[in-house]
Every structure is written in C-alpha cells, then in structure tokens.
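Many introductory courses stop at the sequence. We go one step further.
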Amino acid sequence: HFKVREEGKVKHKALYNVLGINKEGKKEILGMYISESEGANFWLQVLTDLENRGVKDILIACTDNLTGFTEAIHSVFPKADIQLCVVHQIRNSLKYVASKEQKVFMKDLKLVYQADTKDQAETALLDLEEKWGKKYPVVIRSWNDNWDRLSTYFEYSPSIRRLIYTTNTVEGFHRQVRKVTKSKGAFTSDMALMKLVYLVTRRIEKKWTSPLQNWGLTVQQLAIRFEGRLELDLKTES
C-alpha cells in the first residue's frame, strides 16, 4: 500500500502484483496494477489484460481470497485450479481465537492442513469443529465455507504442494520492493510509483536465473496432471 498525490490530495492505493512460474520453472512478474478498491470487475480487468498480453493458460492459481478474484480467474481461464493461501487463512483464523488458547488451537489446526491426504484432513477438520465449533463458530465456518479451494493442494505431490499452498513467494517479492519504497513519502502520481517499482522489479528479476528446486521432476508431474495443456520440449538435436 502506498500514498499517492492526486488532484492535490493524498490517497491510499494498493499496488497488486501477479507473479507466475513459467514452463521453465522460473519466477516472472506478469503484471502490476494500481487500484483504490478491489472487486470482481477490477480482477476481471487484470485477468483480461494478462490474456491480451500473452498468458495462454493458468494451471494453478494461488490467491489470498481477495473479493471476486476466483470468479474472475475462472471467467477468463475456466480450467484453472484455485488454491487459497493456507497461511492467510491461518492468520485470519487466529485473529478470532483468544491469545491464551492459540497455541492449543494451532496444534489441532495443524492436523488439518498438514495431513497427508484430503480424507485425513477432513477428519481432522470435523474433530476441530467438534472441539472448538461452539466457542469459535466464525473460524470453523470460514474453513468449511472455503474448504474446496483451501484443500486443492491435497491433489498434488508434496513438491507441488509446497509451491501452491501459500502466496509466500509473492510476499517475499513485496518485502524486497518495500526495502526501496519504505523511505518514500507520497508519490507524485501513479506513474511515478509504477516507474520506481518497475525498476526495482527489473533488478530483482535479474536474480531469478535458475529454475525452482527439483523443477525437472515437478514439471513432469504437472505435464501428466494437465495432459494436453502443458507440453514439454523433449526434442534432441542431431
């Protein structure tokens, strides 16, 4: 979030970044967008822009459950799997749990999101509801209501799960951006903000030269899971 001067007033605006992992296993910033508010219409514009600029398909989209984001993704890329960020869900849950009970609650909650299979996770979720449901109904309801999109990662192997269960990758990128922008006051315009973040992004991307760890094995699993949508180049030169 940044302060930007507009028509003589200082406004608070959010800068949204879309970070992708390409077929070569390398991180890539696909787009940056500034907005004062979010919603289905804004996210539809973002996804349409990505499509117009060459994004042909999204296999798995990891989001932090922003309003209207999932609907927008499916309207442009209807085959995309959606995984809500489990870390964001945990943080939001703990806001409503008494501090003296958070440690015990987290011990029970870990049995849900660290389960080996979806069936085990759902059993643990039922146990969590039985134990804590009356005391923290809002928290338990949130897990139940979002479960379909929170539990997508159970369909994948551990190596893929680690990539998609949280948005920590893009948050790490944001931390690097904030190192440069934190000393700035209000930006003179949206363009001034975008220019600075763009230059910072270019510098960060220069370090993204290597594919993700064990990408060779991971991309083969993805190619099997998304047959016909992810083609691997296995040609050999003669």
